[in-house]
Amino acid sequence: MxxxxxxxxxxxxxxNALKNLNLTINDGDFVxxxxxxxxxxxxxxxxxxxxxxxxxxxxxxxxxxxxxxxxNDVPILRRTMGVVFQDFRLIPNMTVYDNVAFAMRVxxxxxxxxxxxxxxxxxLVGLARKARCRPSELSGGEQQRVSLARALVNNPSLIIADExxxxxxxxxxxxxxxxxxxxxxRGTTIVMVxxxxxxxxxxxxxxxxxIESGNVAQDIPGSNQ
Length: 225
Ligand SMILES: Nc1ncnc2c1ncn2[C@@H]1O[C@H](COP(=O)(O)OP(=O)(O)OP(=O)(O)O)[C@@H](O)[C@H]1O
Ligand SMILES: [Mg+2]
Known about the structure:
Layout: E1 2-10, E2 16-25, E3 30-34, H1 41-48, E4 56-61, E5 64-65, H2 73-79, E6 81-84, H3 96-105, H4 111-124, H5 140-152, E7 158-162, H6 170-185, E8 189-193, H7 197-202, E9 207-212, E10 215-220
Parallel strand pairs: 3-8, 3-9, 6-7, 7-8
Antiparallel strand pairs: 1-2, 1-4, 4-5, 9-10
């Protein structure tokens, strides 16, 4: 479960990114997060993975209280989640295969498991033929799908995706959504930031949270929740 309790986030330069935000997301939910540019969506995600800390309030993720996190707890928390970053964050000098394999190596997966799993996941996101490329040799949409593959590869209980369809064509958007939907049906919690109104409309059985000026402006429950 994810809980934001009276959360404020003020960045060092004085920007008030989140203001008294309250939000609960249950295990197994699929939630769209929408909102204008600058509304606070990525800030929300950075708090979830303990990349930023709150100025006031509390964030609880998968049983971890963010205010009580010790340095050593951070990698343990992050093992429970797969994150697709808005800016991809791929390792430039590693191939596509190694970018994905690396996520498995850091959690101590066996080589045989890595050799089996990475090609399977790259196939799922339609990148089997790009395994040997480096990120600089890929299109924006392809890099985005490597980022998605890396988020999925360890089978996390929570997937947080910041605009995972922001750089792909409408057809590929649907494919990515179908993939995330299928993963959600198997029990994984999904929090997906998107600007794509057409996508949200098409998948209107999911909960839709709208963030406005650092607060929840609207929260429409999904029909399957
Ligand atoms: N590191 C930072 N330091 C200072 N201000 C920041 C920082 N990161 C974000 N902000 C500010 O906080 C507010 C929320 O930013 P955030 O990145 O969460 O928006 P967003 O909803 O993800 O927008 P977008 O749709 O453009 O990605 C904005 O006003 C932004 O300028
Ligand atoms: Mg953002």
